[in-house]
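protien #1 (seq + structre)
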Amino acid sequence: MSLTLYLHPLASFCHKVLIALYENDTPFQASLVDFSSPGSAAALLERWPVGKIPVLYDSKTGRIVAETSIMIEYLQSHYPGPVQLIPNDAERQLEVRLWDRFFDLYVSVPMQKIVGDRIRPEGAADPYGVVEARTTLDTAYRMIEGQLHKAPWIAGETFTMADCSALPALFFSTIVHPAGTDSPQLQGYLERLLARPSVERVLSEAQPYFEFFPYREAMPRQFLEPLS
């Protein structure tokens, strides 16, 4: 087994890459990163000194691959499977990459701002930044709602890298900042994502760690109990 993914099961960006791996049953070894353990953190830093997860290491090529979108492109190029997450058509590629970046930058990042602010030290909160993050999410939700009138998946008729990005972004963001009743397309899309076997597997593996999520009280109870 040549692939090792450095990850933590509660990290949303790790979920994005795990979904891609599970969609194609790509063999890999998971290396859990515990930042409170000097040895565990050192193993990651040796591979990627920036210290961000996930990081993918391919012992076959000696390649260290960072940044989630690049990891998924690398997997499709070097370890292709039956589910083509990035289409061949150049125009469709642009659409997939656009929405992939959209979910990372305009859903995941503001969501993490809201979550991170809750665990800041006393006196270090950033209420203005949280308001900005919530405003960004409201705008993103409206744009997603409009996009989903076109097709069942965010970038067209088939499941792509953009949907890998969408699931962890929307799963956590709709917990910390729920979408309103004026977002039926978004809600239906999230339900389709949650029914995907790859997603069910990722969330099942993450379930034991959900008790550490800073907005645990807002998480639907179905995700706090063991998933089948």
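ok now protien #2
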Amino acid sequence: MLKTLFVRKWRVATVLVIIAIGVMVRLGIWQLERLDERRAYNARVQAQLDAPPLTLDANTSIDDLTNMEYRSVVVRGEFDFAQEVALRSQMWNATLGARLLTPLHIAGSDRAVLVDRGWIPLEEAENGQWPQYAQSGVVEVRGQIRTSRNQTGIGIPTDPTPAPGQRLTAWNKANVEAIGAQVPYPLLPIYIQQAPDTDPDNVLPYAGLSPLDLSEGSHLGYAGQWFMFAVVFAVGYPLFVRQQQRDAAKRKAEPDLDL
């Protein structure tokens, strides 16, 4: 049968089927690799969720903060509303608006950290009605550590680079490094997503933590499908060729009824 698959009549089709099987197997392996990556990511996130709250103060080491995304954090300090910016195109209960990002001077420290204080309606964000949400004095913020959002690629909105002396008040991403470039003091390399103190739908800005999906996704199912397709091609194609050969032999053996 193997010799038949590589005769001149079937050679090109056989090579194409072999290539297709190889591609399907590779796609199945790729899905298994993505599953391993997803499991490793879920384990890292779950470890941070299970860790005790981190108290962020003057004595806290900042070296590992970028590896602590989703860990609970507590910090005390005063907000600098003169440097507050809005994160545009944010949804809350299917309503478009913005989230307020405000630097917080950490008590007893020369450091500041950006805090996502929550969501406000679009009309208030566009009208610059932010001062009414100011909190004076020393406050205690509880939330989760989030890493800077600086991804680039097709379909991902980008922010312009502020010119020297220019200050952007509306941003597409919580890019801590870029936002920090227009702040007159250093920001920590992460930001904090504030957790609500009360019912998040009653007090603006509506604070809330992003929902997390720690499932394994559909990678295992997709891998199984690709491997199944490869088996179907590997088994079905030789059977198809064999049947074609039999049909051809049968037609050749039949008498010519026109004679």
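The helical segments are 2-5, 11-50, 122-126, 176-180, 219-253.
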